[in-house]
Amino acid sequence: MSQVKVVGAVEIGTSKVSVLLGEIVGEDLNIIGHEARTSRGVKKGMIVDLNLASECVHSAIMAAEKAAQTRIDEVYLAQTGSHLQGSFNLGTTNVSASDGVVRGVDVDQAKEDAKRRNLPDTRTYIHHIQNPYSLDGQPVDNPLSKQGQRLQVGYWSVHGDSRIVGDSLRVIRGIDLDVGDMIISSIASGVVLLEDSEKEAGALVIDMGAGTTDYVLYRKGYIVKTGVVPVGGDHITNDLSIGLRVGRKSADEIKCKDGRAYFEPTDKDESVWLFGDLTIGDRQYPLGAITKIIEARVSEIFEIIKEQLSEANLYDPNDIATGVVLTGGSSRLNGIDEAASRVLGVPARVSQGPLDVNRDLRKPEYTTSLGLLHYALTGQETTSQRPKPVGIFRRLTSILQFD
Amino acid sequence: MFTDSTGSSESLGADLKIKIIGVGGGGTNVVDGLKLDNLEGDVSLAAINTDAQALANSPLTEKLVIGRSVTRGLGTGGDLEIGHRAAESDREAIGEMIAGVDLLLLVVGLGGGTGSAVAPLIAEVAAQSDAVVIAFATLPFTFQGARPQRIAEDSMAELRSRVHGLVPLPNDMLLQEAEEGASVLNAFSVADQWIARGVNALCSMLLKTGLINQDFGSMRSVFRNIGGKTFFGTGSAAGEGYVEAALESLLTCPLLHMGDRPKELDRILVNVIGGADLQITQINHVMSQVSNSFDSREDVVFGAVIDENRHQSLEISILAKSDLELVSALELEAEPDPQVAAAPEGIDPTSALEALGLQAEIAKDNRPPRVVHQSKLRKQKKDAVGQDEFNFIDSEAQRGYFEKSDRNLYNEEDLDVPTYLRRGIKIKIKV
């Protein structure tokens, strides 16, 4: 007899709130409903108006529930925003047994050591993501029963501002739902867009939304770094609005109609119409004005990512053999792959979305939510293997371990 | 809705005293270069600086070296603290300089040690008199570094809370208006030209013989409140089709497109300068086009003056006030905080966090649930309004679309500001 559980994957994005309903039956996941609507009260991935955001999220959740004629048991929530920070922590222990064979207690000891680092009061851990073990300096996948003296394990730990994290929880609790887990957007997106072999070869997933650009770097199959650049499509629109001296709406239309992520010298001689419908107030612009403004912004985003990877000594094109995989609403921008490739020096492609789901759900706005459902499913499996009550990190790390 | 008082003799401002003061090196440079020809009233130009040497080179007659006791006349070397002390030490002399002035125009380059410190003090002194104070302030280029930016921002916040009108002119943005391949020196002088046009528009409207003269009273009514936001824009054209071209040039003025202009402005002052060939029908056309393009809640005050030296040439300038910030701040004060009121009850954030297994240190200290994201901006405003209902400081007022979110600093650059502006990439928008 398998239990049925309905999970609501909720992403409160800057431009869209998306809700996916997944029905988990044993080890199977069926997607039974989806709803996406224009977000309100959110800027740069963070809630700036709790009322507006709550209203919007609640109505999306209720609409999804109504359409699927079901009730959500548990919500999986995505988290982004510039308040998220990460650090790499290494835990070390000496193998306790006299025969030098690693036992479970040693592994636990090493893990504990890595997570010992305390945060200031205002910060809350969201993930501890396990990286490979090393035994006497040699990387090993599973150290149990192997012989050695010094066991080390690294964690990429992500933490956020407690108030902001609490705020998004409050939005969900405001409609009387429990939050089963909170997962940062980049990790959720990455998990559904990459094959295991791609993670193994090394890949950089960049999720460009309206307010933020989230990225996750996989190296040898492990998540070694995540990050958030609080800049997204909204900024491109704003730049165009200021540079071309048009309203935000027109700027957004120009971005979609004529925008390109990189500038080409021939753009100078080409001109485009603001509206192109022969109305009064229509103006002509050199295409170069548009592409120069966008190029400056987009390449800056990629440069910041490159800088952050370099600072962590993780920028090595050889270790990113799969290249850059772009997703998110702003990845629809013409030429974004080329722009990413130019700056980051590795091949880049725009993801077509996970192929194993319905066409509707391949749109970038559902990528993160699909990732949340993935974790809702795999998280279940692993908790059944580990009966002890576990918090979010341990559950997540166990997923990553067995994934 | 037009308040036009057609040229009574009073409106020529017989007793009106206008003083334009350049503050610091940058401000003095601009005032040095001002050419206010054919003005019939009492307009005097003056300069205040800590650097005696620089001031000696200024052709102006009324000059004040301040803070000799502090700097020995050697300038502040970019040190704001020295600037403050210098200004404070000569508060009296500053008071004398602005005594009896009706309209005080301050011209200052923010980001250095003198202008940034002295201009707010002058405004403070002037606030005790009856003068209308309008400040034109250039903001440093991004490439000048983070420190000048910060100084400029702080100083601007101070100024904003003390003057009737503050026109910020970001150099990054004005660089866009310089000729292709212009040197930095040229770029600086672009800002000077813009200020000159603004100052000229104001003075000529009040003092020049014109088709439609405005008196000081109507100007005072536009700038009756301290604080709020001021928008300045100007456009000009000559030759064939100059009326339409000047309108177009005004509508695409970069200063009116910084993304922070509210849909509806509260009061607008429009001034048109044309040649003797300017016809009243053309003025009417300009008036209706401008009022169509810029919605005003209250008044549109129009002035039109003739400059004999012009032919087939037109310059349109607008200065507009928006008290929006002020209104919303007062409303906020009146209502219970909607965010607090609507926070879902019965939810203890501690348990919510713990349910997730999150380490919720902050929530454990039994403080009442804090409303996250009650934006700092609003909070600031509320406090300020509490102290003095017109005297709130709003350093974020220039941030446009992103102004309610947290600042976006990375390597000391504000990422919310367009990249092309920060990097000085020139965008040519004319086909």
Short description:
Chain A has helices spanning 50-68, 104-114, 162-173, 185-193, 196-201, 233-244, 248-258, 287-311, 336-344, 364-385, 392-402; strands spanning 4-12, 16-25, 28-38, 42-43, 46-47, 74-79, 85-94, 123-135, 138-140, 150-161, 179-184, 203-208, 213-219, 222-229, 271-273, 284-286, 323-327, 348-350.
Structural class of chain A: alpha+beta
Helix share, percent of chain A: 25-40%
Shape of chain A: globular
Rg from alpha-carbon coordinates of chain B: 23 Å
**Quaternary status:** heterodimer
Q: Please provide the ordered H/E string of secondary-structure elements of chain B.
A: EHEHEHHHEHEHEHHEHEHEHEEHHHHEEH
Total count of helical runs of at least 4 residues of chain A: 11
Radius of gyration of chain A: 22 Å
Q: Low-confidence spans of chain B: pLDDT under 50, at least 5 residues? A: 1-12, 326-350, 357-398
Question: Strand order, biggest sheet of chain A?
Answer: 3-2-1-6-11
Largest sheet report of chain A: 5 strands, mixed
